[in-house]
């Protein structure tokens, strides 16, 4: 029977420790895409992947781009069968604050069931599970039950420019598929997998406020000019209403697609423990946009946050100085149908409009990503969900997520097939944080569920 995977599951069981060792080697390559100093390491991670894909029996290549390379691989030996396109990213976030790591971030450390390292869950561990499932099948049977393609990028954490261009130019020719499978998110809760059908977009801005041509004595000159940091705080304070949590940029909400009634109902049905959430985050109370639950706020309502603010005297003790300049990094997470470019221009106009006279304000758009909600129904989706249910013990619940994966909206519009975001992580994996981890059992179950998925898709 085509949907029997006992052979492959047995092989995965005997080889899984080796897969884990390979994953560790992959993780040891510090492929930080946002830091130009690591360009060679990003390249090395891409080449590592190409090597492992070839070893598995795929036709693989590195595609050089204006940014970091893409990795593409395929096995198309099952004519008439569906084609699955796997997406992942081999780049990782920077490691700071480095002093909070229990071990060096690129020396993967096993702590019980946890593999602790940068990239363990986001996204090396999760996407390597795709490859190992395919490798196990090819090793066991010499063939795959369906056709597979892999497109793995090296700059997702840096905004994903190159892949965007590549997928648009391809137009669904080489990349044509019956579904895209992405594992770069988390289960809803331990034992409860999730199918993520919506991701937020992003508009990332930087504000620079310049005042006097040099730092000034704050006594001699204080009172005479606008202090650029005071001006910056004035601007930042006007971005959001402190009572209602509403974003005050005119036109900001114009294109926001309201949450649908069924979504609000579904979200409300999922278990929610506010006290536990608060205490996990260490905050005395939650705060967000008036009229929405926390889950609605984080999954489906746009936000505006200062990510960093800098300038002036930041050393120890006191220094009486009136700084010459100050800056802030501000990100807005967007929801359908907001357009990051339009939001960037509304933001820029508003910042200039509320800036006091007497300082110079520069606003820069650092990068953006489109928000997305994907259609997820049909037999292919059901087969994938069946596979997840079988391995993880529960049928995935449908949720949205506050994170962004820039290429997802482009996949949906260009490839016109279901995009399945089936993550293997956990919400406490600490992606982008110190001591990021991936549960080793989740790595193995990820491999198993992909193997089952491919067998199930074959017998559709
Ligand atoms: N894997 C995350 C996105 C994510 C996080 C999806 C949690 C679902 C749940 C991804 O690697 C990421 O961090 N994306 C960046 C994109 C940005 C740099 C354009 C993000 O969301 O900040
Ligand atoms: Mn990721
Ligand atoms: Mn990430």
Give the helices and strands, then pairings:
Blueprint lengths: L5 H22 L11 H18 L2 E5 L6 E6 L7 E7 L19 E3 L2 E3 L3 H22 L5 E7 L7 H10 L8 E4 L11 E6 L1 E10 L5 E2 L10 H10 L23 H9 L4 H8 L12 H7 L2 E9 L9 E2 L2 E10 L5 H15 L5 E10 L2 E2 L5 H14 L4 E5 L6 H8 L3 E4 L14 E3 H19 L2
Parallel strand pairs: 3-6, 3-7, 7-17, 8-16
Antiparallel strand pairs: 1-2, 2-6, 4-5, 5-18, 8-15, 8-17, 9-13, 9-14, 10-12, 11-13
The protein binds ligand BES and manganese (II) ion (MN) (2 copies).
Descriptive report:
This protein has two domains: 6-199 and 371-457, 3-Layer(aba) Sandwich (Aminopeptidase), CATH 3.40.630.10; 201-256 and 302-369, Alpha-Beta Plaits (2-Layer Sandwich). The protein contains twelve helices and 18 strands. Strand 4 (109-111) and strand 5 form a beta hairpin. It has 460 residues and is an alpha+beta fold. The strands form four sheets. Strands 1, 2, 3, 6, 7, 8, 15, 16 and 17 form a nine-stranded mixed β-sheet that branches. A four-stranded antiparallel β-sheet has the order 11-13-9-14. The protein is globular, with a radius of gyration of 24 Å. The mean pLDDT is 97. It is 35% helix and 21% strand. It has helices at 6-27, 39-56, 120-141, 161-170, 228-237, 261-269, 274-281, 294-300, 340-354, 379-392, 408-415, 440-458, and strands at residues 59-63, 70-75, 83-89, 109-111, 114-116, 147-153, 179-182, 194-199, 201-210, 216-217, 303-311, 321-322, 325-334, 360-369, 372-373, 397-401, 419-422, 437-439. The structure holds ligand BES and manganese (II) ion (2 copies). Ligand BES binds at residues 122-123, 156-157, 159, 184-186, 202, 369, 401, 403-406.
């Amino acid at each position: 029977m085509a949907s029997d995977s006992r052979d492959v599951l047995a092989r995965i069981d005997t080889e899984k420790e080796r897969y884990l060792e390979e994953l560790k080697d992959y993780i040891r390559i510090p492929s930080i895409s946002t830091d130009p100093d690591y360009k060679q390491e990003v390249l090395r991670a891409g080449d590592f992947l190409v090597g492992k894909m070839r070893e598995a029996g795929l036709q693989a290549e590195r595609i050089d781009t204006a940014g970091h390379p893409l990795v593409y691989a395929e096995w198309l030996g099952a004519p008439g069968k569906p084609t699955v396109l796997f997406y992942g990213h081999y780049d990782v976030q920077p490691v700071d604050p480095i002093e909070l790591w229990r071990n060096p971030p690129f020396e993967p450390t096993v702590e019980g069931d946890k593999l602790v390292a940068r990239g363990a869950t986001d996204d090396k561990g999760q996407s390597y599970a795709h490859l190992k499932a395919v490798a196990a099948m090819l090793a066991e049977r010499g063939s795959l039950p369906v056709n597979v393609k892999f497109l793995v990028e090296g700059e997702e954490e840096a905004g994903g420019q190159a892949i965007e261009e590549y997928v648009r130019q391809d137009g669904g020719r080489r990349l044509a598929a019956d579904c895209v499978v992405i594992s770069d998110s988390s289960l809803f809760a331990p034992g409860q997998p999730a199918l993520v059908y919506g991701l937020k977009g992003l508009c990332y801005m930087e504000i620079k406020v310049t005042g006097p041509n040099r730092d000034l004595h704050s006594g001699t000159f204080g009172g005479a000019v606008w202090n650029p940091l005071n001006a910056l705080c004035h601007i930042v304070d006007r971005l959001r209403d402190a009572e209602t949590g509403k974003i005050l940029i005119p036109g900001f909400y114009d294109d926001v697609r309201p949450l649908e009634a069924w979504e609000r109902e579904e979200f409300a049905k999922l278990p929610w423990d506010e006290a536990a959430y608060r205490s996990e985050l260490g905050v005395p109370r939650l705060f967000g946009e008036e009229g929405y639950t926390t889950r609605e706020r984080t999954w489906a309502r746009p936000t505006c946050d200062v990510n960093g603010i800098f300038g002036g005297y930041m050393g120890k003790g006191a220094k009486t100085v009136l700084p010459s300049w100050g800056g802030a990094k501000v990100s807005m997470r967007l929801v359908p149908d907001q357009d990051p470019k339009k939001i960037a221009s509304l933001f820029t106009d508003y910042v200039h409009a509320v800036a006091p006279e007497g300082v110079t304000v520069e606003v820069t758009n650092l990068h953006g990503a489109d928000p997305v909600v994907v259609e997820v129904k049909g037999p292919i989706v059901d087969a994938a969900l069946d596979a997840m249910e079988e391995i993880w013990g529960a049928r995935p619940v449908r949720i949205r997520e506050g994170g962004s994966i820039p290429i997802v909206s482009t996949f949906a519009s260009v490839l016109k097939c279901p995009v399945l975001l089936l993550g293997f992580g956990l919400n406490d994996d600490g992606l982008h944080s110190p001591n990021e981890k991936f549960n080793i059992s989740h790595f193995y179950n990820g491999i198993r569920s992909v193997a089952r998925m491919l067998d199930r898709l074959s017998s559709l």
